[in-house]
Amino acid sequence: MSTAAVQPATQGVPGTAAAGAAGAQEGPGSAPGRATDTAALEGAFDATVAADERIEPRDWMPDAYRSTLTRQMAQHAHSEIIGMQPEANWIARAPSLRRKAILMAKVQDEAGHGLYLYSAVETLGTGRDALLDKLHSGRQKYSSIFNYPTLTWADVGAVGWLVDGAAITNQVPLCRCSYGPYARAMIRICKEESFHQRQGYELLLALSRGTEAQHAMAQDAVNRWWWPSLMMFGPPDGESAHSAQSMAWKIKRHSNDELRQRFVDTCVPQADSLGLGLPDPDLVWNEQRGHYDFGSIDWTEFREVLAGNGPCNEQRLNQRRRAHEEGTWVRDAAAAHARKHSTGAGAARQEPEAMA
Ligand code: BYC
Questions:
Q1: Does the C-beta of 170 come closer than 6 Å to ligand 1?
Q2: Would the pLDDT of 13 be above 60?
């Protein structure tokens, strides 16, 4: 999609809920008329959200809704793209052709997820160049999890099982997000994430049932990835700046702590089946709550990673900037090709038709 073609769509268009409300305008330009217009637009927006229908790009939406979505979706897109790096680290060293083919497909899927999401953010009026600029200059975040290193082959399994597992837990509810393009992108992404999670689980199972050294390697990877995976869900509810409003707008359907608990409850029996332990002595079933209790998360570590001081923050951003620079010729070539087809050869081909 051309970034230049995308403008913030702040006006309702015919056939949408917000446009219906805009149709109820009073005298154009008059102050009381403007106030009524805004109230009607807000009413239509609120009604759409309350009815569990989708807000679409050309519908009127509050500025804060637009900027919250732009922030979350952009950071989600950045996470997918940066998230290619830790696993790509192992493509050339995968232990078999089968494992290499699977890992390449997974990393390519992540590039695809980033692209669906960047396209979805563009429908809110911010172009891809501006989004990438914010990532490269550190003004927008990406998921904390990708600032940890993949030290052994077993880490590829742990990332698939735990990181993709956490991502699915977070993203399945996003398929019902109130913003249509995000919800639709998430449906497709979640299908692919399920494959990713299963490949990680299957890889870890093979190692766990392998030699003693392979089992130990799998356990070590799970020990290192468990706590950072729990941090993926964001700060505790009491410290989550955006949750309350995002839930009221039905962007988020569950709080950070609810999803974290759901993830823990899912993982414990899976770890048992894998024959691997989880590195938390406080992990215990609580009959009364109907959930597992778990130990406290090191939020100082989380904040440090967000502040840029994780083990790989610098490496990840430098690699991303380098990849962007090295891809300049590809973007230039694609733009030249698009220009040629909109003005030159393409236009010439259309002439006879136009004359007919
Ligand atoms: N890492 O008020 P809160 C994948 C920030 S990739 C970094 O709770 P919110 C995969 C948060 O942004 C999947 N930052 O925020 C790819 C906010 O800061 P700003 C990635 C975090 O938005 C490749 C501040 O902390 N998934 O699956 O209501 C290979 C306060 O937080 C994190 C998504 O992006 C974090 N973990 O809730 C394998 C899902 N947590 O923006 C796998 C979509 C919080 O004000 N995103 N922050 O500067 C979401 O669901 C929500 O944005 C979050 C946070 C749950 C992450």
A1: yes
A2: no
